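Hi U.,

Before I forget, here's the chain from the pilot set. I'm dumping it here mostly so it's searchable later in email.
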Amino acid sequence: MNCPKCNADLVKKYYKGMIEYVPAMRVTRVDARAKTLFVEGIEGIAGDVVNFIPPQRAGNIAVQADLVGPDRHWCPVHATTFESTRHAAIHVIGDAANAGAMPKSGHAANSQAKACAMNVVALLQGTPNIELPGINVCYSAISADEDISVSAVFRVRDGRIAAVPGAGGTSPLDFSAVRQEHQYAAGWLKNILNEMTT
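Structure:
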């Protein structure tokens, strides 16, 4: 889940003594042999399993195609059409796109693909752009039969993609809810895979 408090609450409830959650820290060095991360302000964090995620960026193909912006990380796009702001008639969605507040998730990319496809058709037909709401939901398994989720709705505001206040949220961490979320997650996966393959 994207929210630090949600992660902290989840670790405390389900994984106390097993997982140490350290958000938003700058890793300065990794010692793979010692399974230790060295973090600014902390001597070292060691563990049986260390999940280190380095800084992310768009792939080399995007860099070579001159689609990445001045930040050298992501591809700037028009918020409604996902057309590159650097090169006309090239559209970028998913992880490589700088899509404002939308997270880099499979569901967000699926939502962006729909908006992009409709606007490519509009471009070819010479009709006005179509602004669709962006949607995201992420399910995370926390046991064999329990899941949690985070969801959000996005709109274009002042030329940028922004979250709609009060839309979406996180699932509660109680026994009946996480069991129900497990069923929702299974249904979500089945439906999105069917949609993408038909």
